[in-house]
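Suppose a classmate hands you a notebook page containing two proteins, each written out with its sequence and a corresponding row of structure tokens. How would you begin to make sense of it? This section walks through that situation. The first entry is reproduced here exactly as it would appear on such a page.
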Amino acid sequence: MDFAIALTNVSKSYRKWGRRSQFATLKSALLKRDVKLAPEASVEAVRNVSFAVDRGEAFGIIGRNGSGKSTLLKIITGILKPTSGTVAVNGRIAALIELGAGFHPEITGRENIVINGIMLGLTRREIDQRFDSIVEFSGIGEFIDQPVKTYSSGMYVRLGFAVAVHVDPDVLLIDEVLSVGDEEFSAKCIAKIQEMKYRGVTLVFVTHQLDQVRTLCDRALWLDHGEVEAIGDPVRVVDHYLQEVSGTSVAAVAPPAGPTAEAAVATHKDEEERFGSGEVVLSRVAITDDKGRELVALGPGTPVTIDMDVAVRVPQDDFVFGVGIYHADGTCVYGTNTDLEGLTPLRLESNGRVRFVMPSLDLVAGTYRIDAAVHTRNGRAFDYRRGVLRFVVGARVHDIGVYRPKHQWKVEGGITFKQIDLTERNVPAEIAEAMRAAEPRKKVKSKE
């Protein structure tokens, strides 16, 4: 299997020492005639964790403080050995686990770059070739020949991150150290992480900045008291985590009587994923034409509307409605929400309908899906319906991509074409006949 990291039933225990396992003085130890110390108990920081990270995948780990996230990263890097279970890593690892880890405080930044580069597997020549890029990225050039002990926490992060991303790692592990940097450098780091992701570098990072998990990660792991609470789609995992932290869940909201009661079910269609607190639900989502008729198939350029019927169980002051259109292969065609487009929420008091109107849906022929959601401005989902609708766009022209802009071909000079009937080319006869039959028939004047 083509994995970068694989953990199987990994656990890590620490011995817990209490007052009874310590001696007050050397004399008391000698009088007891037994200088062996025995722990009173053990604490499991990580318990029976199993997962695999594919090559090139961005994998986020979230959870409360003390849940075992940093311990897990240290086990992956080899800083800690698991008490039980196995860890397999394929490729060169670069890690930012702790602030200043791997730096010697008494020597200069220049010397630390060389030492860290060698520790990460580079030759001296490779370090010399990348040295200027490392210093430029870190932005601490004027302090590069000063002892590291004189650096601020932000300078530690700048230098550590610069070294880690310039050793061309196969796997990059990042703990919460990026939160120490300033806003400008954090944005620079995120851009670099995205670039590395596109180049196929495997990324694993621990963070409390949940928006980064949503936007950067392909999957996320929620660790709670050392155990895997959830793993999978980052939006869904982060949402479940936020619900747990805020003390709300789908089960905590009593379903209303009537036909909208089904909307509280987590998943009720074959291919739909659905999750959220249930305080507000999208009881119906439909694609309709300009006459309100529901559609499952349409032609390119068709005017359509996405209707969302809203059932309010708990009134809200913080709410956002969003839609997303995806190709069948998972490519995002378009996505937006009311917050992005400047609609500030005031009050969601009672049931209603939200309509996303598109005068022309210019898509290439193919199969597509619709995602619809209502959530808070910080992303906590009331009702998130992924793949709530599927629809097909049919067209005679089999062009490439997902978007088909309105256009025409014009030629000048000695260039000529013969216009042909598209139903006669690359279209099975029975389909061409059906398309002709569906065309409006021209009225023929009868001869008197």
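The notebook's second entry, a different protein, reads as follows.
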Amino acid sequence: MHSLITGGAGFIGSHVARYCLDLGHDVTVLDDLSGGFADQVPTGARFVQGSVTDYALVQRLFDEHRFTYVYHLAAYAAEGLSHFIRRFNYTNNLIGSVNLINEAVKHEVKCFVFTSSIAVYGANQLPMREDLTPQPEDPYGIAKYAVELDLRAAHEMFGLNSIIFRPHNVYGENQNIGDRYRNVIGIFMNQTMQGQPMTIFGDGEQTRAFSYIDDVAPTIANSVNVPAAYNEIFNIGADQPYTVNYLAEVVAGAFGVAPDIRYLPARNEVVDAYSDHSKAQRIFGQSAGLSLEEGVARMARWAREVGARQSSTFKEVEVLRNMPPSWKAALVTSEQE
């Protein structure tokens, strides 16, 4: 079993790569290190630095290694920012995916595992279920849904099997806590360790179900061994939603400090987002899951070890109109430096 794992130096991908190695896979990791770190590639995996948008590189890897499985986790997963980086978003999250699908078809890959997102649902009824018609509201969700549709078309035309996961708000060790645009728990931890207030868009009463990495990654890795999962879509993650305000309290508590919050103007985002996971539980088995408090405590211990990281500013912004003022100010400041 030779598996290609894109984004395997990143957050979820590095954990999936580790679990695939534990399952006996020969693992090749492809990652451009735009959001990941080479030292997060697990020992035993073959690492290739490069992008899924580099079609020649993708072709060469498939020709050389004849992959049995593809786990496609590489993406720039910044929903809010995707409105302002549309070309970048579609190039990386859609065209890059199509490059992989083309080669998977040509080389008769046994199964293509794709991490989509609950962003495909948009402001849909709650809890979000797989049988709902997706109504994505941002370019990131649109790109993810387009890849889902392309995988369905590839199965109907060529017989390419796929398993699609829609994870949500995953957190834990190896998360890029220096990214100012995504992963709210990492952002809160990075701000807290630097003595800065935790910034919240809006009133903080928006809700999310935060999912600890080890409640998600093992299922993704082992899914290729579950025949009933082939050509199906699964929500995966935690069941219990919490407000962002409560999350801030939990993060502060994990670092032994009082919550220090600075509220920013609300941005255009889905207010409440949580999923139904009965389908995944039926196919993969029931998982009790880690509590938010314990999961955050584990991540906080890791974050203290790696230390605070300076947030990099995304400099390839294509549209400034209606961008949140704090993002725009940071962009202007970085350009002046």
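A careful reader of the second entry would note: Residues 86-106 form the longest helix (21 residues).
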